[in-house]
Amino acid sequence: MKLVPQVLENAFVRLEPMEDAHREGLRAACNADQRIWTELYPFSWANEQFEPTWEKLRRDQAEGSNQPYAVLVGGEVVGITTFYAIEPANAAVAVGGTYYRPDQRGGATNPAAKRLMMGHAFGAGARRVVYHVDALNLRSRAAVTKLGAVQEGIMRQDRVTWTGRLRDTVVFSILADEWPSVRDRLEARLAVFA
């Protein structure tokens, strides 16, 4: 697997490798939902937490441990999604750290972005794409299931969130031989929005 950051685009979204130019747009998008950060995320992008989270993201990106993408709709930054836990030797990668501004949820943005991310990963030789979802995040669990991912299990008390809550993490995956049917279902879903 050779996963190289590059611009990914379809009729609904444009994913750009994260750059400093995306910083203020991402800050505004993240501040559009104050509640979600304390309820569902292991880290926060809101308010005073934005700067340290941004700096860590950019350090990890420079070290190559993740590949974050700014999610743009109509030229405006509406969120973020990331490749992380990149394991070239095992041909495995996780997609996550995803956040969308509230007005982008429930429409074409997530399936369109996931179509691009998974297409890029499997096209780069991935054998396995993984999703780690907070067990309390019912919306994300439903969205990942709707993508066609298979739930593998729940890692109990897997993480301590930034608020101190112990998080159980649900693990989902899609394998390379499952990708064609997952891709076809995603494209059928997106056709409704065209």
Automatic annotation (TrEMBL):
PANTHER family: BLL6696 PROTEIN (PTHR43610), N-ACETYLTRANSFERASE DOMAIN-CONTAINING PROTEIN (PTHR43610:SF1). Gene3D superfamilies: 3.40.630.30. GO terms for molecular function: acyltransferase activity, transferring groups other than amino-acyl groups. It comes from Phenylobacterium kunshanense. InterPro entries: Acyl_CoA_acyltransferase, GNAT_dom. Keywords: Transferase. Residues 13-177 form the N-acetyltransferase domain. Pfam families: Acetyltransf_3. The keyword DNA-binding does not apply. This is N-acetyltransferase. The lineage of its organism: Bacteria, Pseudomonadati, Pseudomonadota, Alphaproteobacteria, Caulobacterales. It comes from the Bacteria.
